[in-house]
Design brief:
The protein is of the alpha/beta class. The protein has one domain: Phosphoglycerate mutase-like (Rossmann fold), CATH 3.40.50. It contains 6 helices and 6 strands. The chain has a 6-stranded mixed beta sheet with strand order 3-2-4-1-5-6. Helix 1 packs parallel to helix 2 and helix 4 crosses helix 5. It is globular and about 45 Å long. The relative contact order is 0.22. Pfam families: His_Phos_1. It comes from Schleiferilactobacillus perolens DSM 12744. This is Phosphoglycerate mutase family protein. GO terms for molecular function: phosphatase activity.
């Protein structure tokens, strides 16, 4: 049984809003969401899912509406939980990609995020085409799962790039091919 999953990173967020869950898209991020609608217009989509974070939902909503679908939100699709405000962000992220089980107290490791996402994927029907509105670290954890050793490279690529996507083909619940949009 074949399943196709498109992971879409949210559009450009309004970083003046510091609440991670309610941070909206900028006007440019909203434009990116509209552009994604045209990219996926001719695709036959089974269902659309998203992280409950506003920027992820707002990114895939135009696409869902274009297909007459609603956006189903899941806490399993949230971005990695940080241990709070990290002043040494670059060093923290480097350490997490060197040790996929590392997280400071109150935060999540890359493996934890990956396991959460994989548990979500196991709940999807075995066939169909699915859209997932997501986040950079979470998407990179799936790249790491599909192509061990490539997650950090993809994470670095995503820095400053929004509304990017990749396609994961699965056969009987196993990744068989990954197409990165770069």
């Amino acid at each position: 049984m074949t399943r196709t999953i498109y992971f879409i990173r949210h559009g450009e967020p309004d970083t003046s809003v510091h609440d991670d869950q309610t941070r909206p898209l900028t006007p440019y991020g909203q434009q990116q969401a509209q552009q994604l609608m045209s990219v996926f217009h001719d695709l036959e989509i089974t269902a659309v899912y998203a992280s409950p974070f506003q920027r992820a939902v707002d990114t895939v909503t135009p696409l869902a509406k274009d297909h007459g679908l609603s956006v189903h939100q899941s806490d399993q699709l949230k971005e990695r939980q940080m241990p709070g405000w990290v002043t040494h962000f670059d060093q923290y992220v480097d350490r997490q990609w060197q040790d996929l089980d590392f997280a400071e107290t109150g935060g999540e490791s890359i493996h934890t995020v990956q396991a959460r996402y994989l548990a979500f994927l196991q709940q999807l029907p075995p066939t169909g085409t699915f859209i997932i509105g997501s986040h950079g670290t979470a998407m990179s954890s799936i790249v790491q799962y599909s192509q061990p050793g490539q997650g950090k490279r993809y994470f670095q690529f995503l820095q400053g790039h929004y509304a990017k996507w990749f396609k994961l083909l699965e056969l009987d619940g196993r990744p068989v091919q990954l197409f990165l949009e770069e």
